[in-house]
Amino acid sequence: MANKSLKKDQLKNLLNKVAQNSQLIAPIQSDGITLFRPVKSGEGVVLEYQNSVMPPKDYFFPMSEKMFSYDTSDPSWAIKLEEGVPSRVLFGARPCDVKSILLLDKVFDAEFRDDLYLDKRNKTTIIALSCNECRHTCFCGAFGISPGEAEGADILMTDLGDRYLVEVLTEKGEKLAATCSDLLTDDDGSGAGAKEKAVAPAKEKQLNISIEGVKAKLDNMFDHPIWATESLRCMGCGTCTFVCPTCHCFDIVDFNNQSSVGYRYRCADSCQFGNFTRAAGGHQPRPSKTERIRQRFMHKLRYFVDRYGDTACVGCGRCLEKCPVNLDIAQIINKVKEVG
Ligand code: SF4
Ligand code: SF4
Question: Where are the domains positioned within the chain?
Answer without folding.
Answer: 4-56+84-204, 214-245+274-338
